[in-house]
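Budget justification aside, the reviewers requested a transparent look at the raw inputs and outputs of the sequence design task funded under Objective 1. We therefore reproduce one unedited record. The lines immediately below are the structure tokens for a 154-residue chain.
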């Protein structure tokens, strides 16, 4: 069976997208204490320096990802694929599309923060060429919860 995955720029305030973001928040809340979750609210995700993507599988919303243009680099945020669709390379497709948008926006570096309790995310990022680095921006180094990564693009 050939399943259709569509990735597109989407308004994060749409009701179905908000539900997906709430699912992501609940997932992260089950893994980390609140002070270790660096979540951007929908209102921030709607700002002009943010690109927000969703992934649909056969018309059903199953994933999302975003980046914030920080001027010198892009920060990957809000990467999520619903558990029943993990392992289908949807996260990889979202990340590849984000990288295309980052490059077309003139940026050459992508950075991210993820958590130590997310082996799927760490595997995805490592497999896509991201390398560990020190904390950046307003983050503080926290080896017990956070992993900071970077990839040079273009």
């Amino acid at each position: 069976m050939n399943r259709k995955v569509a990735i597109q720029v989407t308004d994060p305030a749409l009701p179905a997208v908000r539900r997906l973001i709430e699912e992501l928040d609940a997932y992260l809340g089950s893994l980390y204490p609140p002070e270790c979750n660096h979540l951007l609210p929908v209102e921030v995700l709607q700002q002009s320096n943010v690109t927000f993507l969703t992934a649909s599988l056969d018309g059903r919303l199953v994933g999302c990802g975003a980046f914030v243009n920080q001027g010198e680099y892009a920060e990957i945020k809000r990467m999520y694929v619903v558990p029943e669709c993990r392992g289908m390379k949807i996260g990889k497709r979202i990340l590849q599309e984000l990288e295309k948008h980052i490059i077309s926006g003139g940026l050459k570096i992508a950075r991210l923060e993820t958590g130590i309790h997310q082996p799927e995310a760490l595997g995805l990022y490592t497999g896509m060429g991201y390398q560990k680095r020190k904390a950046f921006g307003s983050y503080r180094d926290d080896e017990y919860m956070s992993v900071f990564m970077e990839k040079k693009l273009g």
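DSSP finds four helices and seven strands in the chain. The chain has one domain: 5-152. Computational costs for records of this kind are itemized in the attached budget.
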